[in-house]
Design brief:
The chain has helices spanning about 15-25, 60-75, 125, 140-145, 165-175, 195-200, 260-265, 305-320, 400-405; strands spanning about 1-10, 30-35, 80, 85-90, 95-100, 105-115, 120, 135-140, 155-160, 180-185, 210, 210-220, 225-230, 245, 250, 255-260, 290, 330-335, 340-345, 345-350, 355-365, 370-375, 380-385, 395-400, 410-420. It is of the alpha/beta class and about 425 residues long. It folds into three domains: about 1-120 and about 255-325, FAD/NAD(P)-binding domain; about 120-255, 3-Layer(bba) Sandwich (FAD/NAD(P)-binding domain), CATH 3.50.50; about 330-420, Sandwich (Immunoglobulin-like), CATH 2.60.40. Strands 1, 2, 3, 4, 5, 6 and 17 form a seven-stranded mixed sheet that branches. A five-stranded parallel sheet has the order 8-15-9-10-11. A five-stranded mixed sheet has the order 20-18-25-22-23, with no helix packed on it. About 45% of the residues are buried.
């Protein structure tokens, strides 16, 4: 067994930002472990633009955004092992990994940052009836085949789910000469960003069928036909509403889930809504010395926020490593209520009340006329934030000002929203 100061698992936008932040703070021994053979994670197959507006102040493609960080990381003298799979993380921060150059290794770290990203839900997880022919792909897999490998995945395509990757791939496949017959969404609203609805569907006359789902896939060797039906308020198919589409490919864009297997193995407490670790405002999990950030905690809609969260995790891991151990603090719970789906972080340190605290949240349903987000301390309103538009597909970021929070002695905080 070897020893190091900090192990970061994942060299995507969160992991790279965490490594750079920790190095800038003076952490000496940093080991980054990445299962792919390249930096940047999913960014490398996201060849569309729209990245970097918040973080870099300019619009970049995914590979350009990744290159900005990987170039800095290469000059920061951080030890990075690519093509390396992490097998487990123990509660006492022992990390098992294996790679073609290192073989099997165990490293003991003073701190660990989980920046493992997220994965797509598959057909098996949503239980679509029908046969099992070729031509059923997740949107992310299709993106890789088209953008990185140069394959044409189909000619007549239907997309199930209106997540951002599915919307972007509907446009991408149209530009490649395929016909996208429809995007089918179970909910009465889209789960993607409004800008992607406009730029990827409306601009290309691709129909969006809300409150619909695929009830059957037909085909022996290759997808030949799908049945689409409207659903009722309980999301059950309505008899007599079926429509059949002759297609050769089905793309699934039905949600992303934080990669949480390593967190589970380390005994970290998970949020039942996000699927990622419960974290404090310093991005530390329920296991001391293990931090988490980016899509491993919650699925973001902007990579800029992923990088900012990674930087925060790197800063606080550096605090743990470079400063005298702080006295154990009471953690104040921060909970979502009413029409708020979840909030991150879920806990706030007492000492953080004297500083501005950034929080992220999502609403459960669209509020086209906007709403008022209210922060309560032990049930008493202390802050209100007016938003002109609220949508489940768009994450909201709030800063709780220290002028107000530093005066609080509450045992818990809660967040709710209501229409104006």
């Amino acid at each position: 067994m070897t020893e190091t100061d900090l192990v970061i698992i994942g060299a995507g936008p969160a992991g790279m930002a965490a490594a750079l932040a920790a190095r800038a703070r003076g952490v000496g021994r940093i080991l980054v472990l990445e299962r792919n053979g390249f930096y940047g994670g999913i960014l490398n197959q996201c060849i569309h633009n729209g990245f970097g507006l918040h973080y870099f102040g300019e619009e970049l493609t995914g590979p350009e955004y990744a290159e900005r960080f990987s170039t800095e990381l290469a000059s920061a003298a951080v030890d990075v092992h690519l093509d390396t799979m992490v097998l487990s993380v123990s509660p006492d921060r022992q990390v098992e990994y294996i790679g073609p150059k290192t073989g099997y290794q165990v490293v003991s770290a003073k701190a660990v940052i989980l920046a493992t990203g997220c994965r797509e839900r598959t057909r098996g997880q949503i239980s679509i009836p029908g046969t099992r022919p070729a031509g059923v792909l997740t949107a992310g897999a299709a993106q890789r085949y088209v953008n990185l490998d140069g394959y044409q995945i189909g000619r007549r395509i239907i997309v199930l789910g209106s997540g951002d990757i599915g919307l972007i791939m509907a446009r991408r496949l149209t530009l490649e000469g395929a016909e996208v017959v429809a995007v089918v969404e179970l909910m009465p609203y889209s789960s993607g960003l409004t800008r992607n609805i406009r730029q990827c569907l409306d601009d290309f006359d691709i129909p969006l069928l809300l409150s619909h789902t695929i009830t059957e896939i037909r085909g022996k060797h290759r997808v030949e036909q799908v049945t689409v039906a409207a659903v009722d308020a309980d999301r059950k198919p309505l008899p007599g509403s079926e429509t059949r589409f002759d297609v050769d490919t089905v793309l699934l864009s039905v949600g992303l889930i934080p990669e949480n297997e390593l967190a589970k193995g380390a005994g970290i407490e998970l949020d039942p809504v996000t699927g990622g670790p419960i974290v404090s405002d310093r991005m530390e999990t329920s296991v001391p010395g293990i931090f988490a950030c980016g899509n491993a905690v919650q699925v973001h809609d902007l990579v800029d926020y992923v990088s900012a969260e990674g930087r925060r995790a790197g800063d606080h891991a550096a605090d743990l490593l470079l400063n005298e151990p702080a006295a154990k603090e009471d953690l104040i719970s921060l909970t979502a209520t009413g029409d708020i789906t979840y909030v991150v972080p879920q806990q706030i340190r007492q000492s953080s009340l004297s500083a501005g605290i950034d929080i992220f949240l999502r609403v459960k349903r669209p509020l086209p006329g906007g709403g008022v987000i209210t922060v309560c301390a032990d049930g008493t309103p202390i802050l209100r934030f007016r938003r002109k538009h609220l949508n489940p597909g768009e994450m909201e970021r709030l800063t709780l000002p220290h002028q107000v929070m530093s005066q609080q002695t509450a045992a818990s905080f809660s967040i709710s929203v209501e229409a104006p």
